[in-house]
């Protein structure tokens, strides 16, 4: 299977020697499970998009420091491409920024959350069990880094996971679109370093909470397996 990584941002230059860039994080995460799959990166933040929806079998987005409501030429082009994936019934998984973007494309609303920054670990319950959630567990705890949230769901959205902080944490639309607010590709060390460099934006109490939360167990490999299962059509 060929997976197209839609790259919407770069890791900060000073952090790349230690952590690499976002496409490599996804390849490392998913490639550990799907070693025979091919991954191709498209730098959509530079205006690079696949020539057609059939260039890859399935697609996944990286996160981004930008917001889905920003007035950016490349973002408008990405929205149009995601809309074409929806029309073509192509498999698509949206991560963080992509989670919000997919909801916007489908008619939902994304806004700055009154709950403030989500950083460090997020703790969520599974509300709907899907066949591709194999192995299954009733919770999903992932690293997050976001200020915006989906505040109004598209009509066809099915909420698979939530928390009091993020009511629309993981969503599915039909059998080919799925998205999650968390970052399974982020390591704890990267999350910590990112918080350290955003002290001018993240309130100090929230930053301390986020750093302390990184002591918890993260379900990154579980979410990776679920993504692979979703792409492969397990249980569908």
Shape: globular
Strand content is 25-35%
Name the strands of the widest sheet in spatial order.
2-1-3-4-11-10-9-6-7
CATH superfamily: Class I glutamine amidotransferase (GATase) domain
Provide the low-confidence segments as ranges: none
Rg, alpha carbons: 16 Å
What is the count of DSSP helices, taking H or I runs of 4+ residues?
7
Number of β-strand runs: 11
Order of helices and strands: EHHEEHEHEEEEEEEHHH
CATH architecture classification: 3-Layer(aba) Sandwich
CATH first level: Alpha Beta
The tally of domains stands at 1
End-to-end separation in angstroms reads: 17 Å
Mean pLDDT: 96
Major sheet: size, sense and barrel closure?
Answer: 9 strands, mixed
Secondary-structure-based class equals alpha/beta
The percent range for helix content is 25-40%
And the CATH topology?
Rossmann fold
In short:
With 236 residues, this protein is an alpha/beta fold. It is built from seven helices and eleven strands.
Question: Topology of this protein?
Answer:
Elements: E1 2-7, H1 16-19, H2 22-31, E2 38-43, E3 58-61, H3 73-87, E4 91-95, H4 97-105, E5 109-112, E6 118-126, E7 139-146, E8 148-152, E9 158-162, E10 170-173, E11 177-180, H5 188-196, H6 204-213, H7 220-232
Parallel strand pairs: 1-2, 1-3, 3-4, 4-11
Antiparallel strand pairs: 5-8, 6-7, 6-9, 9-10, 10-11
Mind explaining what this structure looks like?
There is one protein chain. This protein has 236 residues and is of the alpha/beta class. The protein has a single domain (2-232), classed as 3-Layer(aba) Sandwich (Rossmann fold), CATH 3.40.50.880. The chain has 7 helices and 11 strands. The strands form 2 sheets. The protein has a 9-stranded mixed beta sheet with strand order 2-1-3-4-11-10-9-6-7, with helices on both faces. It has a two-stranded antiparallel sheet with strand order 5-8. Strand 3, helix 3 and strand 4 (91-95) form a beta-alpha-beta unit. The longest helix has 15 residues, at 73-87. The relative contact order is 0.17.
């Amino acid at each position: 299977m060929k997976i197209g990584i839609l790259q919407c941002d770069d890791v900060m230059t000073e952090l790349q020697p230690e952590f690499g860039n976002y496409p490599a994080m996804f390849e490392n995460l998913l490639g550990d499970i799907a070693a025979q799959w091919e991954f191709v990166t498209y730098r959509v933040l530079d205006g690079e998009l696949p020539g057609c929806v059939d260039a890859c079998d399935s697609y996944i987005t990286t996160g981004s420091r930008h917001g889905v409501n920003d007035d950016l030429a490349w973002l408008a082009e990405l929205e149009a491409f995601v809309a074409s994936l929806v029309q073509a019934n192509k498999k698509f998984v949206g991560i963080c920024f992509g989670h919000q973007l997919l909801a916007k494309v489908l008619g939902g609303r994304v806004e700055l959350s009154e709950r403030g920054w989500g950083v460090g670990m997020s703790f969520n319950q599974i509300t709907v069990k899907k066949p591709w959630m194999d192995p299954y567990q009733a919770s999903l705890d992932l690293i997050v880094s976001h200020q915006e949230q989906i505040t109004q769901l598209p009509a066809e959205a099915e909420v698979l996971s939530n928390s009091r902080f993020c009511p629309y944490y993981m969503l599915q639309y039909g059998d080919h679109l799925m998205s999650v607010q968390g970052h399974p590709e982020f390591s704890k060390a990267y999350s910590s370093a990112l918080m350290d460099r955003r002290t001018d934006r993240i309130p100090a109490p929230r930053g301390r909470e986020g750093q302390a939360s990184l002591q918890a167990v993260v379900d990154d490999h579980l979410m990776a397996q679920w993504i692979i299962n979703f792409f492969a059509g397990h249980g569908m």
